[in-house]
Amino acid sequence: MTLRALVWVVACLTAAGCSSQSSSVRPNILFAIWDDVSYPHVSAAGSKMVSTPAFDRVAAEGALFRNAYAPAPGCSPTRAAFLTGRHIWMIEQAGTHASSFPTTYVSYQDLLEEAGYAIGYTGKPWGPGRWEKSGRTRNPAGPPFTDRTLDPPYDGIRDWDYAGNFESFFESREPDQPFSFWVGGSEAHRRFEQGSWKAAGKRLEDAEVPPFLPDTPEIREDLLDYAVEIEWFDSHVGRILDFLAEHGELDNTLVIFTADNGMAFPRAKANLYDYGIHMPLAVRWAGPGRGGRTIDDLVQFVDLTATILDVAGVAHPGGASALAGRSIRDILESQADGMVDSSRTRAYSGRERHSSSRWNNLTYPQRSMRTPEHLYIRNFKPQRWPAGAPQKYRADGRGLEEMHQAYHDIDASPTLTRLIEGRDEEGVRHYLELAVGKRPAEELFDLAADPGCLDNLAEAPEHADLLEALRDELDAYLVKTGDARATGRGEIWDEYVRYSAIRQFPKPPEAGTDY
Q: Domain containing 389: what range?
């Protein structure tokens, strides 16, 4: 018996439980996650703007999931939900941005480590936030491996050698010890080097402008600079895949390649529209399943957490009820394309605070439910500004800045600048309003006809019955899962401490007890 198999036997005898389907050699886990990349922007999904051979390889040798949904449209809550396997409204402070991460909620990395796995991360782990404020001794993603750096090709790309740091981790573990490693890209987070697309040999005509942005040269250039960063992180994952193959470990590794939230452009990131929460996802699992499949089942990140624990044979100490998702192992081990598990027809997401963007540091609370055909969004505080108030106080306290300079739930970018500067232009004004204007309490979109989420059907009489059904279903689910927004305790979200910059905004005239 190899040392690796012996470690597995000992873990099975001492852990809460092991999967009856587990082999004598436990699988490794490799989790690779882009920062701020929407589903359409991988070549496996048909994009011509980017080339993502590593992602495409995982999809070709495993499965491409066309309907994978993030738990939130922001990095910190998404990562916390994935690490815990629970929706953002089930993890208190960890469910919002730049707060803390209560020790009540155990990370799957900690559970794997207890079961004998070597764990670690490189790049961006859980964050931004202050895990130490909760009494933790390290990031919930595990111990860091960040010593190896390189000279990045463009300004804005981090100098982390993701692949090199994985190699250092791999070589540091005990011989034959299974591992679970987190590769957290900082790309394609803002900022981008303007004009990097030219040096990378891209063409302006290849930019894919989403329907919620005007088609202008500045925005095309910004999209292509974004594509360059997508490709950079993909190249590192490709190096890691090659390394695993060379060391005979690739076929014993569950590879999950995805992104945390949508592209850092107006009306995408920090929004529950499809470009904010619909994620690229490819999974490679060398079990009995057939590779090269395309899966249409609605899959949530909390399902991925359950999958990792399932294939590793590690039970959650809180039992199955402690996880909000269900393992997709059945999909990975099937031979089918399309809709494999007909029961997977719902995906849930939520948002609270993203940046410090409103008076009194208030949140913009939202919940959504995705069905095979529709996206239903509940905006709990439609009186608040979704992208941030349009005006804030100067940092020195001497009066207010100019209007339209405070949309801090949108990352600063050439695209946002173009919308603001062109707000009086006929062909631009509408797009700025889409990005920053106040929204109704309910939104409903037919995603097959309207993937850009521009045509709100919630007020259309012919959709009244559908709207009521989706509203009641989401309400029931939120109550069942203990969401404070659905049980009369929603104000708690405005009370959670934010440990990042706090900006000052004038008090809105309509601010009352229910603001």
A: 349-494
Q: What is the DSSP letter of 393?
A: B
Look up residue 354 and give its amino acid: H
Name the region of 389 (left: φ>0; alpha: ψ -120 to 50; beta: rest).
Answer: beta
Give pLDDT, residue 290: 85
CA angle 283/289/293 to nearest 5° reads 60
Distance between alpha carbon 168 and the CA centroid of its chain, in Å?
A: 26
User: Is 341 in contact with 330 (CB distance < 8 Å)?
Assistant: yes
Pairing of β 28-34 and β 63-69: unpaired
Phi, psi values for residue 194, rounded to 5°: -65, 130
Predicted structure pTM score? 0.94
Domains held by the chain: number: 2
- The model's pLDDT over 449-460, given as tens digits with 9 standing for 90+, comes to 999 999 999 999
Neighbours of 373 (CB within 10 A): 12
- For residue 364, the number of C-alpha atoms closer than 13 Å in the C-beta half-sphere is 29
pLDDT digits (tens, 9 = 90+) for 212-223: 999 999 999 999
Confidence bin at 22 (pLDDT 50/70/90): very low
Instruction: Reduce the DSSP state of residue 213 to 3 states and report it.
Output: coil
Return all residues near 43 (Cβ < 8 A) that are at least 6 apart: 50, 51, 52, 53, 55, 56
Other beta carbons less than 10 A from residue 235's beta carbon: 15
Whether 501 is covered by a domain: the verdict is no
Alpha-carbon torsion (302, 306, 311, 313), positive or negative: positive
Task: Assess whether 410 and 475 both reside in one domain.
Answer: yes
Tokens linked to 318: 């809180």
Nearest to 127 by CA among 117, 138, 116: 138
Q: What residue type is assigned to position 273 of the chain?
A: Y
| CA neighbor of 436 nearest in space, from 424, 452, 453, 419 | 419
Cβ 374 vs Cβ 444: under 8 Å: yes
What beta strand segments (E) does 266-373 contain?
278-284, 293-295, 299-300, 347-351, 366-370
Strands (E), 232-373: 253-259, 278-284, 293-295, 299-300, 347-351, 366-370
Number of helical (H) and strand (E) elements in the chain, helices listed first: 13, 12
23 and 146 both lie in a single domain:
yes
Verify that 175 and 320 share a domain, yes or no.
Answer: yes
Q: Quick check: is 173 in a domain?
A: yes
pLDDT digits (tens, 9 = 90+) for 173-185: 999 999 999 999 9
Contacts of 228 (CB under 8 A, 6+ apart): 154, 192, 193, 196, 197, 200, 202
Look at the chain and count its residues: 515
